[in-house]
Model the fold of this input.
Amino acid sequence: MSATAETTAPEAPTTAKGGGGGRSWVPKLTAGERVRALIILGLLAIVLFLLPAILSGYWINVSTDTAIYSVVALGLGVLMGRTGLVSLGQIAVLALAGWVAARLCFATSLPFPVILLLSGLITMVIGTLIGLPALRLQGLYLALITLMLAGAIGVALRTTNFPNGGAGFLGHTESDRGNGTIRRPALAHADTAFFRYTVIVVAIMFLIALLHVRAKPGRAWAAIRQSEPAALAGGVNITLYKLWAFALASFLTGVAGGLLAARSGQLFTLQFPTQDSILLLAAVLMGGIYSFWGAIVAGALMRLLPALLDNWGLPADLLTILFGVGVLQVLLTAPQGIVYQFPRDMARLGRLIGGLFTRARGAPARERAG
Amino acid sequence: MPSWEDFKPFIITGLALGSVYAMSGVGMVVLYRATGVLNLAFGAVGAMGALIAWQLINHNGWAEGPAFVICVLFGGAVTLLYGALFGPPLSGRDPLIKAVATLGLALILLGIMSWVWSDKARSMILPSSNHGFEVSDVFVNYTQVIALGFGIVITIVTGLFLRFTNLGTAMRALANDREITATLGVPVRRVEAAAWLGSGLLAGASGLLLSNLVGLDATTLTFLVISSLAATLIGRLRSIPGTFLAAMGIGLVNALITPILSISQYRDMTPFVLATIALFLLSGRRGNALTGRAG
Done:
């Protein structure tokens, strides 16, 4: 992929600086990055304080879902965009994480943040165990084995179902409403409060991923993605860093699963259909696998767009078709996804319009357009 | 532990299911060997063909024969169209990218299917399902016989075709090295088109048979491709006899677990579990054989 070199380039100076000051995990920021960080903090403030004020309860829940799925997309982005490992089973991992979180919730009376952390860690262990043998496989075979494992997890979960307060290890009762719901954090019971809580957790997850990418693991992943033999020759511990990528992605997905469990109160297998793993892959590809903004776009494509279509009275199946077309279009013409393509196309459009105006005034348009 | 009598009826079910898996698997292997594309939309194409046949029979008053032919032809046409449009621009890319691109086709077809034919339960019974004969107290219907016969015949014919015909030799050459084959004067595009068409026809046929053996539901049929994919994986995406045997094994194990009540509910995990074990064993024995490249 020729696009990879381009995207890593702007990050190179900062990572070099960060690594320069010893083994610092928090790199010094350049002026441009400080501005960017301020913009992001501003956006975060708007999301935290303005959105809950103007949105209705339904849209708050949709926004919560969008935030959660953007973390799932982030996990796939770490695997696919950063390290070059394609997983077709991330939704199965999410379902597994939801199961773990629900199980912990009904079995213990731990506070919610601990449950969140534990479900992240347990999913991380499971994900790494899956990744361990998969390390021998590459490319297509790795993608297919994740598809197989996702299928197996799907069948198992459809049979065992999600814990809803029943007895025994599986903890599922057949009664309609189950015995109680998965609890939410003590300070965020209402939907709006839980939305804020989710956004903050999601922001922390993005920060964790960002710190990884900017530090040594990120450089190792980039080397592995570009060429495994070259990375090996360069002294990169390929096994360690591939496992690290699996671990980080599973941890992120695990936390997302915990949030989703608390958001829904009860989990059902219907929430994790097989095609969602493929839709997620499509959404992440369309959003842009090389950028963190792409993960947010992917989350919106997964959860916000269906709600919008529903609101406008359009069938949600249109979305599936759109995703299919999107995958083909991304693979053929724009491997970097919407986050890169959209500003570029907009800039081109802007130049075109600007060119029209200047030409109308008789000025040479070529200088501007160049 | 159930007795032999309990297992008997499931042998023929397993063989029939296994042979349809084998048919889909062979279709995918042929295409992968010739073009390097693992067609993950195989199931979606078959499902849509079957749904079109259903529509023609139940709403347009077609006779069954022509409708089934349309189903098979639809499979061929869609696959060929995709191959003609997206095969050449993606031909130089990684096999993984090519496989992911076919997921795009699968999503488009899936979207159209659930839009046009909403997820209502419907069924299509092939006329051959109503007739059959008994083998030692077990009723065997002709659809199962046809499936088994098709699976075996198609495997043998495809194997011989790749081995002995000019077109088959050209396909095997393409699998080895596309550039060198082109320099030798093989019409690459035409050979690839033949592979797309053949694989598409098989997709249509297996969609038709599966809709009868398993049920006519867009999502189920689309993702049933994962089960036949398991067989091709055990055949390491190359071997046609290997794929056939693996598919039969998967079908048999899957069906024979049914009477064992303690694990009966988990029987659909069979293809995935077998494929996972096989992949790990294969990758352990030959570390570099599974690098994801064709040939």
Remarks:
- The domain at 4-281 of chain B is CATH 1.10.3470 (ABC transporter involved in vitamin B12 uptake, BtuC).
- The two ends of chain B are 44 Å apart (CA to CA).
- Chain B touches chain A through 49 residues (CB under 8 Å).
